[in-house]
Amino acid sequence: MIRSEVSALYSPIYDEFMLSTFNEESQIHPQIFQVIDDHTKEYKVDDLSGLGEWVDANEGEGGGYETPVLGYPKTFTQAKFWKKLQYSYESVDQDEYFLLNKQGDAKQLGRGARALVEKKTAEVLADGFSTDGPDGVYLFHDQHPKSREETAVYHDNLLSGAFSHDALEDAEQQIAQNFFDMKGIPIDLIENPLLVYPPEMRGAVKRVLDDRALEQPDTTLRNINQFAGRYKPVEWRYLSSSLAGTATNWFIVFPELGFLKIIWSARPHFSAWIDDDLEYYNFKGRMLCDVGATNWRCAFGCTGL
Question: Are 168 and 227 in contact (CB under 8 A)?
Answer without folding.
Answer: yes
